[in-house]
Amino acid sequence: MMKKAIYFLMTLGFISLKGTALPEVRRFENYLNNLKTLSGDFTQINSKGQTVTGTIQIARPGKMRLTYNPPSSLLIVADGKWLITKDREADQVDYVSLENTPAAFILRPHVRFSGDVEITNIVPKNGNMTEISLIRKEEPDAGYITLVFQDNPVALKEWSIVDGQGVETRVILSSIKSNIALPAQLFVIESPNLIQQIF
Prior knowledge:
The structure is a single chain. With 199 residues, the protein is mainly β. It has a single domain (2-9, 15-198), classed as Clam (outer membrane lipoprotein receptor (LolB), chain A). It is 11% helix and 47% strand. It has three helices and twelve strands; from the N terminus they run ααββββββαββββββ. The chain has helices spanning 2-6, 22-34, 104-107, and strands at residues 37-46, 51-59, 63-68, 74-79, 82-87, 92-97, 117-125, 129-136, 143-150, 155-163, 168-178, 194-198. The chain has a twelve-stranded mixed sheet with strand order 7-8-9-10-11-1-2-3-4-5-6-12. The longest helix has 13 residues, at 22-34. It is globular. 28% of the residues are buried.
């Protein structure tokens, strides 16, 4: 369950890409690059339709915290180097390099939907929303992330991650406040009794 949480975040209106669509998404890149902090609630839905809720904080670059509400005991923290998943009941922690996770797409110091990543789909949705799907060029079969933005005003509303086995995890944001002060301690996890590092 913990490892699945790590790889925790197209039909009508499909636009074929290969670079020509990049000017159309520049405003979404600019939004993310101007987003210093974000705080609010989230609802996470897995591929079986199971739902959990919690709170989210993001401090760009590099830092994020997902605190799951009971009965889940999960806590996920990105500290700038690692994406750390903690089972608060078992006092067990897993580490994975942040850059090797989908979270890196939105936590990098400078977000670009180009370079080592590639846009695969842009889908207009519900009149005022846009979905943008991205893959890593070096690992196109490892899965993809889809970011869902409100168009006007631009705001990140949700993301979904599909791993290499086709398992989807969707994260929907709500009650979001942007660019507010967040305590640095939110993005620190105390050393547990049991640590497992995954590189």
